[in-house]
């Protein structure tokens, strides 16, 4: 079997081309816009399918070097922080607690579904956890971290393959269900949508936009880099204190501190167009990150345990949709902000933090801003849910 590893610069250039394809397709397709399908999904998944076909037809495995993706993730979370308002953040305290509680309940339900389906197929029940919160809420990192325990201690030899395959299906599904869920809720409940032109990430799909000048982009870029520097040292300090968080959380916090602490003290440093600059840079970074994540999917990993995976993932996706529409939306307030949070809940439960944010971005670009959602969801994804998931996984493994 042949293997090709694409150089990082070429991979980055290809991702730009794929994002262009997604944006053009979205501009020309009313159907894609109607269901708020994220632009990166179109090009990224097209690449993943092409790479999969090359593997199956010619036995050539193509891999991409995507080291730059981590930096793109930091940039767009720093951008969220720089556009946050402390009053909105404080008002999000109750929704933050509620969404964290809902996510905790869902983690348990997700593992129960995985374990139950594994029992039906005559597998070790704990193997079902690899198609539960380990791979879906935890992601690839959690899957890789727990796989040795399942193989060595529990004797489940294909644990890693099941987990990676479930994560792949979940990631693709999360990208596709978020926009339609929000669109359904907005139409079904006739919700008053948000304000256009003041988005946390990206710009609206309307034809008329506020122009962005040279200084607006440069000023935004400078503050983003300062956020990354502060976030780096904050991350080091937290690690020394024994608190291990994803680095994007530190960059998000750094942005909040600068926006609400430093900016009011130095108002003359603000430049017209800075907000638009932040939105555009963050939008590009987010789109590039998810495009890279999808184009690097190895679809051939799905060939093992197909019947089990097909059954368990069908149930997981169905449960995510129903739980989001009938529980999350109602508990989170049944308003437009709640519908945007619902668009991201699929990313929380089936994909990743980036998937959740890109789903919400696609919805807000079409229907208007939802500032509180862009603070609450990243905090739940990046901090609370990881801790709760680790505790729940440990309980089920040792039970």
SSE layout and pairing:
Elements: E1 2-6, H1 8-28, H2 30-34, H3 39-58, E2 60-64, H4 68-82, H5 86-91, H6 93-120, H7 139-153, H8 159-188, H9 214-240, H10 247-262, H11 274-295, H12 306-331, H13 336-350, H14 353-367, H15 373-398
Parallel strand pairs: 1-2
Helix pairs in contact: 1-3, 1-11, 3-11, 4-9, 4-10, 4-11, 6-12, 6-15, 7-8, 8-12, 8-13, 8-14, 9-10, 9-11, 11-14, 12-13, 13-14, 13-15, 14-15
Report what the structure shows.
By secondary structure, this protein is mainly α. It has one domain: Na+/H+ antiporter like fold (Up-down Bundle). The protein contains 15 helices and 2 strands. A two-stranded parallel ribbon has the order 1-2. The N and C termini lie far apart (42 Å).
Report, as a whole number of angstroms, the end-to-end distance: 42 Å
What CATH architecture label applies?
A: Up-down Bundle
Structural class: mainly alpha
The CATH topology is: Na+/H+ antiporter like fold
The residue-averaged pLDDT reads 84
Estimate the helix proportion, in percent.
over 70%
Percent of sequence in beta strands: under 5%
Largest sheet: 2 strands, parallel
Run of helices and strands: EHHHEHHHHHHHHHHHH
Give Rg in angstroms: 21 Å
Strand order of the largest sheet: 1-2
Q: How many beta-strand segments?
A: 2
């Amino acid at each position: 079997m042949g293997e090709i590893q694409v150089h990082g610069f070429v991979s980055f250039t290809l991702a730009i081309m794929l994002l262009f394809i997604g944006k053009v397709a979205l501009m020309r397709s009313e159907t894609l816009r109607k269901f708020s399908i994220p632009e990166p999904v179109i090009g990224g998944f097209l690449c993943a399918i092409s790479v999969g076909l090359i593997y199956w037809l010619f036995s050539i495995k193509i891999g991409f070097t995507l080291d730059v993706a981590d930096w793109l993730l930091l940039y767009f979370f720093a951008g969220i922080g720089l556009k946050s308002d402390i009053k909105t953040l404080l008002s999000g305290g109750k929704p933050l607690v509620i969404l964290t509680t809902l996510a905790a309940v869902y983690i348990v339900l997700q593992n129960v579904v995985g374990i139950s389906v594994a029992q039906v197929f005559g597998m070790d029940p704990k193997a079902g956890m690899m198609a539960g919160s380990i791979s879906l809420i935890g992601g690839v990192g959690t899957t890789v971290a727990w796989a040795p325990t399942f193989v060595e201690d529990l004797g489940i030899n294909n644990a890693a393959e099941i987990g990676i395959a479930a994560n792949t299906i979940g990631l693709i599904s999360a990208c596709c269900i978020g926009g339609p869920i929000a669109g359904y809720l907005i139409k079904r409940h006739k919700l008053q949508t948000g304000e256009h032109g003041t988005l946390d990430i990206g710009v609206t799909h309307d034809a008329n936009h506020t122009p962005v000048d040279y200084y607006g982009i440069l000023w935004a870029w400078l503050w983003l880099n300062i956020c990354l520097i502060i976030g780096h040292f904050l991350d080091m300090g937290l690690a020394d204190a024994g608190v291990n968080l994803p680095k994007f959380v530190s960059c998000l916090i750094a942005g909040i501190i600068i926006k609400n602490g430093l900016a009011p003290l130095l108002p003359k440093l603000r430049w017209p167009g800075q907000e638009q600059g932040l939105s555009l840079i963050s939008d590009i970074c987010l789109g590039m990150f998810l495009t890279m994540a999808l184009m690097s999917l190895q679809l051939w990993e799905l060939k093992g345990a197909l019947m089990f995976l097909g059954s368990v993932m069908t149930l997981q996706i169905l449960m995510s949709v129903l739980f989001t529409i009938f529980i999350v939306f109602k508990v989170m307030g049944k308003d437009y902000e709640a519908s945007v949070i619902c668009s991201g809940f699929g990313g929380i439960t089936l994909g990743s933090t980036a998937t959740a944010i890109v789903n919400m971005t696609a919805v807000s670009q079409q229907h208007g801003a939802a500032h509180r959602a862009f603070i609450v969801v990243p905090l739940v994804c990046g901090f609370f849910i990881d801790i709760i998931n680790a505790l729940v996984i440990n309980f089920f493994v040792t039970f």
